[in-house]
Design a protein that fits this description.
Blueprint: E1 2-3, E2 6-9, H1 13-24, E3 29-33, H2 40-44, E4 50-51, E5 60-61, H3 62-73, E6 79-82, E7 86-91, E8 97-101, E9 106-109, E10 111-114, E11 120-123, E12 153-157, H4 161-170, E13 176-181, H5 190-201, E14 206-209, E15 212-218, E16 222-228, E17 234-238, E18 241-244, E19 248-251, E20 262-263, E21 266-268, E22 281-283, E23 288-289, H6 297-315, H7 326-329
Parallel strand pairs: 1-9, 2-3, 2-10, 3-6, 10-22, 12-13, 12-18, 13-14, 21-23
Antiparallel strand pairs: 4-5, 7-8, 8-9, 11-19, 15-16, 16-17, 20-21
Amino acid sequence: MITTDICIIGAGPVGLFAVFEAGLLKMRCHLIDALPQVGGQLSEIYPHKPIYDIPGYPSITAQELINNQMKQIAPFQPTFSLGERVDTLNRQDDGSYVVLGSEGSEIHCQVVVIAGGLGCFEPRKPELENLTTYEGKNVHYMVKDPERFRDERIVIAGGGDSALDWTIFLSDIAKEVTLVHRSDSFRGAPDSAEKVFNLAQQGKINLLLSHNLQKLNGNGHLESVFMTNKSKEEVVIHTDHFIPLYGLSPKLGPIADWGLTIDKNAIEVDTFDYSTNVERIYAIGDINTYPGKLKLILCGYHEASLMVQSAFKYVYPEQKLSFKYTTVNGINAF
């Protein structure tokens, strides 16, 4: 059995930052994640995607951020169980927990922190009857390696941040990029939307607004995408790849059975310390919900900082928490 202070479910950016914050208070962490590597969605879905809202980095790729965070937490020597789902939480007589993993791991901890992003997730797919014909070939629900699309023709569908960001990024890589959206406005960040409109005006991408997808066409290999415009006229775009980016459909999995208060696949928390309704269980990052919630990595970092201050009382019940600044004391002083 693994013994630690805090068991963090989810090894994405917010879970990794929680390790850092806990380490400053001399609390040990063990992380368990169903994915085979650290990084969560950032490493699994868009490792090469640029991120623009991390303080101090005008632009940093998702994987670079994770790599930097791993360096940041290295002094605290966290341990990991990767490629393993959490199945059961067993509360002990003293209030602590034993976390049981799907591959046999047993982790004894004083505090459980759920930092599972969207939980178990799968991509939302467009309703096209022949979509499965091209899945695994020319239909992609995530962009893991942008170089795969170098000098190729691609059609991206969607109106959120992911569709906008990849349209911008791939415009310098692909031979031809067409962005299709069923509305005449975007749901993503206004700055990204403005960049997309500018690229379209410059002729660097094709932008088709108020267009509805109808079907894919090809002979075992994708050749074109059929759609209709606002006037119900048929539009055909010849392409090598189709990338529908409609977001992810979250599924909490076993977490839904742990007695937590759930609202629309998210865990309700108290914003004082991001605790759940179950003592010694916290939820941080995209998996939680509260009034005014913003699903930003930056907000998850903030939640992790406050969470560890509260968790301290369970790990060191006899000690008084003394907050210090790393700029004064340095990491080694903690």
